[in-house]
Amino acid sequence: MAELVSKTERLKAYLLILIVALFFAIPFILSEATVILLCEVFCLCLFAASINFLLGYGGMIPFGHGAFYGAGAYSCAIMLKKAGLPLGFAILTTPIITAILGLIIGFFCVRLAGLKFAMLSLAFGQIVWAIIYKWYSFTGGDDGIIDIPLPTFLYDSTYCYYSIFLVLLVALSVLWRITNSTFGWTLESIRENTERVYFIGTNARNYQMIAFVISTFFAGLAGALFVLVSHNAFPEYVFWAKGGEGIIMVVLGGMFSFFGPIIGAFVLLFLHTFILSQTEYWPFFLGAILLVVMLFAPEGIVGVIGRKLAFEKEKAN
Amino acid sequence: MSATILLQQLVSGISLGMLLFIVSSGLTLVFGVTRIINFAHGSFYMVAAFFAWTVAGSLNYWAALIFVPLVVAMAGGVIEMLLFRRIYRAEHLVQLLLTYALVFIIADITKVIWGLQPKSISTPEILGGAVTVFGVVIPKYRIFLFGLGIGIMIGLSSFLRKTKIGRYIRAASEDAEMAGALGIKVPRVFTLVFMLGVWLAAIGGVVSIPIITIILGVDMDIIIQCFIVVIIGGMGSMGGAFLGALAIGILDAFGYLVIPRFVIVLIYALMAVVLIVRPRGFLGKTAE
């Protein structure tokens, strides 16, 4: 039995290596437009993964998480455009800034659960949005920040692609390590039964707060990376609907799974590009897809595949 | 700053509060009974406003006020039976996202029917003009809104307290299972409550167009404002929604005198403070 498990684990690892290798080859195979689209997808993958860390593993609904993504984008944009700081510095310090913001906001949010948590996270997120939206002298208000200067190599889509992909790989590995540590397991048990976790002498609230900070760290990093692709920052990156978009990705791909949200981000962005090339009524199709998923497969793509596989296995036995 | 200006702002704050109450009362009623936070509530408001623009254009305003909410409530009833009924037992996230999906769908349908142009109608003749009380100029339409808000507050609470159906609704909201065991047809009560909630959203939509230009996207604006009202008032509490709506309306009006640019920050801050200090809101039942 142990051998069987290790065999499937090894198969999974090979598959993962194959996929990563494939992504390294993509700039040589696909068109420039697709490469740029993939750069955007990578940023949203990281954003979705950061949301899923709270949603899937921690059982918290972060409806205002767009604020951290947007704050990341703005922090990076302001450092590059207004302060003229080097890119490396901006990318490294931005997640720390959003994590500190996450610490302040998370401190209050984790005291609540369920819908109330979602609503408080929404309220704080909207405060961040409103400040960025209205503070013209610092953030450019509704004009946003455009033409952000970047090192010249990043204007080449291939270099941009590899830079973002590498950062994504590192970030996802770190997140993977965290979810498969005792910390991650504790977080999952808090999701399942908060009271029991208290009974065994663990302060669940502290764990949730640390999870919140970790999640906002990566959400901010995702926002900062997005500036490398978009060369701008707009208030809608901070708006609650951005967080809503992230949650849709997570649910579409499948929460309770590490790779679900990443798959969800891919599927959603490619659907978005494809449907928009056919019709202007993308929101209608997005709504219809979301409706069908919620009614018939709330466990998402990965969940459905998992169920199918388990079913096949049972039939084989 | 003279007293007249302050009173002027108070009047406009109260009338904005009344509008918010009319819409939020539907949201809080539906939540109280079905435990669903309906994102699409604002979409019904928007559809009703556009629809009223059409009806008021071909017939008149009063026909729109009677006819539009009824039609939109019927449509709401159909949606409840087709979709909402399936998710009453689902998790919060599934409920939120299903109703969020409806927001996208309804917004695009609205776009197909009414397009992207902003729409507005003039105030009906009888309610045009203003009266002056102690030097404060009060547009008649705002007095009408005030009366309507109070009327709905009184009407709804006596409907819930005094009538048989009202008692059924309260029973179903206390304990749906027990109510079912006692022979109340709970699914029918849920449909009725949902239609009532949509009807209230639609009334809000119709009475808003003479004062607020309607445009695609107001669905999102109004639903977030309703969330704020319902949260600070206490989820599921009608009186709470009334107080919450008044608080937001008045804070909005006076905020404009003090820090016009950051009023919106004030409103979200109030929501956050209430959630931190008193998570159940002004009049909400014990924390869930």
Question: Would you write up a description of this structure?
Answer:
The complex is a heterodimer of chains A (317) and B (288). With 317 residues, chain A is mostly helical. Chain A has a domain at 30-238. Chain A has 14 helices and no strands. In chain A, α2 (32-57) runs parallel beside α7 (157-179), α7 (157-179) runs antiparallel to α10 (204-230) and α8 (182-192) crosses α10. The two termini of chain A are 14 Å apart. Chain B is mainly α. Chain B has a domain at 21-216. Chain B contains 11 helices and 2 strands, in the order ααααββααααααα. Chain B has helices spanning 3-34, 41-58, 61-82, 92-114, 140-162, 164-174, 176-181, 186-208, 218-233, 238-258, 263-277, and strands at residues 130-133, 136-139. In chain B, β1 and β2 form a beta hairpin. In chain B, α1 (3-34) runs parallel beside α5 (140-162), α1 (3-34) runs antiparallel to α10 (238-258) and α2 (41-58) packs antiparallel against α3 (61-82). Chain B starts with a helix and ends in an 11-residue tail after the last helix. Classes of the chains: A mainly alpha (317), B mainly alpha (288). The A-B interface holds A 55, 61, 108, 111-112, 114-116, 118-120, 122-124, 126-127, 130-131, 134, 240-241, 244, 247-248, 251, 281, 283-284, 286-291, 294-295, 298 and B 37, 83, 86-87, 90-94, 96-98, 100-105, 107-109, 111-112, 220, 224, 227-228, 231, 235, 261-262, 264-265, 268-269, 271-272, 275-276, 279, 287-288.
